[in-house]
Specification:
This is MarR family transcriptional regulator. About 60% of the residues lie in helices and about 10% in strands. The protein has about 110 residues and is mostly helical. The chain has a three-stranded antiparallel sheet with strand order 1-3-2. Strand 2 and strand 3 form a beta hairpin. The protein starts with 10 loop residues before the first helix and ends with a helix.
Amino acid sequence: MGALDHGRIPTHRLMAAFTSAAQVHVELTCRQMAFLCRLATDGGKSTAYYAEKLGVSKPAITRACDRLSVLGLCHRKGSDFDRRQVVLTITSEGRALLEKVASAQVEG
């Protein structure tokens, strides 16, 4: 996942991840997959941080987090430093899914 360490995720990497996710029977949108990948690399940041990094609105990140939370892939909690902020992190289930997706990419 080296390409995920730099700013925006290249489209070809995101599409490969999305295709691999479909192969492991996960129904996520491209935006949700990009968000999950970003959570894996930059976990513990605010909604505003992820919105800026992914080039989407804060409400879009909130919706993506809502969906990922329902699936058990993302966790949301209040910041220890600023009660107005929400910190978003990937769960162990989310990491396991990304590992499955990475394996499917290697195999496919």
